[in-house]
What does this fold into?
Amino acid sequence: MMTVKLQVTILLALAVSLAAIVNMIRRKSLELKYALSWLFVCFALAVFAAFPRTMVATARFLGIDAPVNMIFFLGFCFSLLIIYTLTVSLSRMSIKMRRLTQIIALNEDRIKHMEQQLAQLKEEREHEEADSDRLQRPAGESDQPGI
Amino acid sequence: MKRIVIIPAYNEIESIVSTVEDIRDNAPGFDYVIINDCSQDGTMRFCTQRGMNIINLPVNLGIGGAVQTGYLYAWRNGYDVAVQFDGDGQHDAKYLNAMADYLEANEADMVIGSRFINKEGFQSSGLRRFGIRYFSLLIRFLTGKTVLDPTSGMRMVNRDVMKIYSEDYPVDYPEPESVVTILNMGKKVLEVPVIMRERQGGVSSISAGRSVYYMVKVTLAILMERMRKRRERGL
It folds into this structure.
């Protein structure tokens, strides 16, 4: 059975992990949505460590002889679940990323063309202004004959 | 009729000029757009300097994402017909006008340039041909339609399919899967005979080691497409 020393060590480790997770959520480095599963793990392990008899009872309920095997088994299942949800969110992310990349590329292209058009318009306008300046000058000074 | 050629390019610096010239000379009714998928060989600068119409993806998306960008471009710019065309010199632009005429005359949604109608030109290696025949059989089994060259990268589509593909297109090895998508939607897919060359530059995306992945992935993708259709019908 679990020694008190081990119980204290596990609880301390869990307290540190919990503090780290909470701190990450507080700094918005970790989304609460994804942190929930980790918080749940912490909580479940804390219950088992603080009250080892719950662990034995749960193992018996699940029909597992050695409580330690239950820990391994459940830990494994839970890890798989977390990895699975990660691949799901990764797939969603990659779809979003692909669309964003495409829109950025197309918009860059539009910006390039707009800039070219703008430069062209500016040039045309400068020409027009230069022309009208010349027209506004008194007739005698004009270099264009007939005006 | 506004028509455009979509040329996905990844490290095609050796063959891109001849591809664009081929289109300019032999398919005069077509605009073109190159989609540069983060080439490492300076394709981007090379094309920009020559004043080619090129779109630059800021991060590498793979062939599916690049081609989809082309469809999105075609859709947004109001093109009536868009055709995928490899930048590595495998495809011949002289077929494009005939393909477009065929598409319009038969009111088809997609016209595939097929190597296996007249069995002329570069026919791919034996093992690959076997794979293509397998996909062809699988598609016939699942959709009842015959597509002799489902892996052909030379495919012309109308505005309907352009929209479908700009919204949803497979990431890698997209051809067979995306044909099944539109077949399931009841779209009309036809084939015309073309002669393809062996690639002039670049490397095939399907190396020996990846061919197993290719077969498994595309088979599953086609089956999934089929299941999607069934679910939609059930609703």
Chain A has a mean pLDDT of 87.
